[in-house]
C-alpha cells in the first residue's frame, strides 16, 4: 500500500504521561463499594434497620444468618403459582389441559417468604422461625430448609416478622 501523506500520528511520552483519561469519568461514576453504615447513630434507624449484635458470638447459636452486601437480611416475599412453568406453551400439539393451565387464577397463588444466606443447622433455625410465626398467627406455618441453596422458605408473607425475630436473636 502506498502512503500518500507524510503526516504520522505518533504520541510522544510527554503527551501520554500528561493525559488522565479517567479524570472526567471518575466524577460521573458512583463509588464501587457500598459504604459502611454509620454506627454512631440511634438504632433502629427510621427505616427499621439495625446492625448485628456486638456480642453475637457469645450467644453460641448452632446456625448463622449472613447479611447481603447492602448490610441487610436477605428476605424475599413472592407468590408462587401451582404450576411453575408450562412445558407445552410453544408446542403446536397443545390440548385443552395446556390451555386451562394458562388460564389459571392468580388468586390461587401461594404466598411464600424466602430467607437466604443461612448456614449451620438451618433445620433448627427453620423450626424456631416456624414456632415463632405460629405463636404470632395462631395458625400452622409450613417451612422448608434447603441446605444446598442456604435458604429457608415459609408459607405466608412474613418478611417483617422474620426480620424482627432475627433482630431479637442478634442477627
TrEMBL record:
GO terms for cellular component: mitochondrial large ribosomal subunit. The keyword Ribonucleoprotein applies. The keyword Ribonucleoprotein applies. Its main location: mitochondrion. InterPro entries: Ribosomal_mL49 (IPR007740). One of its GO terms (molecular function) is structural constituent of ribosome. Keywords: Mitochondrion, Ribonucleoprotein, Ribosomal protein. It is found in: Mitochondrion. GO terms for biological process: translation. Signal peptide: none annotated. Belongs to the mitochondrion-specific ribosomal protein mL49 family. This is Large ribosomal subunit protein mL49. It comes from Oikopleura dioica.
